[in-house]
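Notes, p. 3: input format for complexes.
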Amino acid sequence: MNTISLTLSKSQQDLLHTLYHEYEVENNNAYIAHQYRPMDCVISLYTSGKAVFQGKSAEEYASAFQITETTSFEEHAGSDEVGTGDFFGPICVCAAKVTKKDVSFLESLGVKDSKQITDEVILRIAPQIMERVPYALLILNNAKYNEVNPTNNMNEMKAKLHNQCYINLSKKTALPKKIVIDQFCEEKTYYRYLRDMPYVVGNIYFTPRAENQFLAVACGAIISRYAFLKSMEKMSETYHFSFPKGAGSAVDEAILKFVKEYGKEELRNVAKLNFKNIQKVGL
Ligand code: MN
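Output follows (283 residues plus manganese (II) ion):
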């Protein structure tokens, strides 16, 4: 049986529904938004935007969507960040640029569904992406974070880091016309945070969940997650300590254990001190 998987843009998903809604059947898979059964094909549209065409005529049905996908590709840069929800560890931001000749290589690595990629796969594919596409990576370590936090809120720091990534990227490669940021605040607010910066990269397109729609944002997300994982690994080696991710109860326990071993002062070198976890454990 033929099986073809494609990631569809929002407008392609709408087109799929317009074409085949009369063949829609019920399904009880929570991850499948719609399933259609036209002649000789089963088309499952997942909530992630992935469409799977199965059956004798899978190729015919899928071809319409494949053509649109490759011809509509536009060279672009994109960026994303990691670590902003983690009590321990740095904030990593990365901007990358993707041109048409990189598309099939990146797709063969499985770059598209970046949120669903495991840490193990990130560690394997990120170095390959870093060899292939131009990128600029910034790591804001905890000591620096705690130093600038009193005068910069989280989004302000993100805005400055994203902007600096694009400045650094522009020194390696010409910035394309299209630049996309995985949106974390209003466009107006973003530029307000940057008003005192000597140089501001403008004309940016902001959209949520951009890592599913733009390969360069997906690359930025994967490279920054790689940098975050590597930083955490290094911290673990330095302190012979296992730092949990996120900001949940495992983190609360780890804070107390860490402070017992290394003292409260040392926390500022491994953690984001403005997180509520600090009050929660009574420090
Ligand atoms: Mn993001």
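The pocket of manganese (II) ion is lined by residues 80-81, 182 (CB under 6 Å).
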